[in-house]
Every structure is written in C-alpha cells, then in structure tokens.
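Hi, here's the filled form for the chain we discussed.

Project: internal
Contact: R.S.
Residues: 240
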Amino acid sequence: MQYYLIIALQVYCVYHWYKNKNDYYWVFLIIFLPVIGCIVYLITQVYNKRDVDKMQEELTTIINPTKKVRDLEKALEFSETFQNRVNLADAYYDIKDFNHAIKHYEDAIAKDFHNDKHVIFQLIKSYFFIDNYQKVIFYAEKVKDNTDFKGSKAQFFYGLSLDHIGEAEQAEIQIRQIDQRYSNYEERLHLAQFLIAKGKVSEAKDLLNEIYIESQHMTTVNKRKYRTTIKEVEQLLKTI
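And the returned structure, exactly as it came back:
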C-alpha cells in the first residue's frame, strides 16, 4: 500500500510539474528521490491549505479519471434533476469528452432552463473544441447580450468561429474583447497572431509588447503558469 501511495504522489507531482511548466530539475528530484522529492515539491510548489481539497480531487482524477463521471452518473440515475445532469456534463467536459458533455448539456436545457448561462457558455466551448463552428455561433447568439459574455472565453471562441466561416470583420470585433490587461495572456497571443494574419502587424506588435511588459511584473506562480506563452510572445516579437 505504501508503495502505491508513493507512486501516486510521484504521478501527481509530475502531472503538476507538467501542467505548470516548472523547472526541469524537479522531475529528477521527484523520480530519483521519490519521498523527499515529492514532499519538497508539494511544500514549495503546491501546498496551500485552501488547495488541499482540490489537490486530492486532482490526484483522484489522475489515478482514475472516470471515477467522478461514474459517481455522477449514479447520482443522475438516483435523481434526474437539471443540476445533476449539468454536474455530469461538467465532469465529461473536464476530462475533454466533449461529445458526451454536449449530449448532457443539451438534454439539461431541452425542456427547462433554455437560457441557462453556464450551460450555454459550456456548449459554446465544447462545440468549438470539436470544430462545430456553426453550433458555436448558434449558441453564442443566444447569450451575446449577456454582460458576462463580454471578454469571456465564450466570446473569444465565438469570434474565432466567425473567422472560420469567413466573417472576418465581425470576428475581429468579438476577438478584440479578450484584450484585457494583466489577464487572458494566451488568448491575447492568439489575438496578436490573428492581427498579423490580417496584415495589422503594427497593432499586433503593440499588443505583444504590452503582454511582454506585463510579464515582467507577474507573480512567481503566473510566471510559471504562462512561461510557454511568454516565450512564444518573445519569439513572435523577434520575427515581426
């Protein structure tokens, strides 16, 4: 049992390292000094009392990614409520099973709660990830006047979907809303790439410089989290 616990800790630490793109030496510490390495990594890179429950949930998901889904399927069988179905759809979304997520989201709003904001936003994102841009647009137009839509990832995916169907001008209007300072770094990088593709290189360069300057004032956690994005920003700046 102790052996499996150590393996589980190593798996979690490596997963956290990969997800947060921490320094490479942590992998060697975790693998070659499993107990000490994991403890040091957890204390210095992960541990926060508010995050304990989340860490346990993530660890369970890594070891058995479908457990949460099975538990929520049983909950839905016991009580077929709107919230239970949405919870199950969210669990499918979390493991990137977007087709099953879509099925349950759509079942949830088939009879009631037709305009539930959370479900519509999730449908927009889910359909984008399976390249169904017409459905993204269909659902986005149901909530585009909602105040929470402006600047959201749902609006960003709406803009990208409009671009995919050739609505470049409308796409740019929507995509630009993601440009909010000190946030949305990955999306703003995509916006810069979008502007370059449209021949608006000067605007793209200004945006990339903004992101780079903001990166110099990031917290240590955000520097780790967005390391790859910032490197891409730096590389793109050198080419334009």
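Let me know if anything looks off before we file it.
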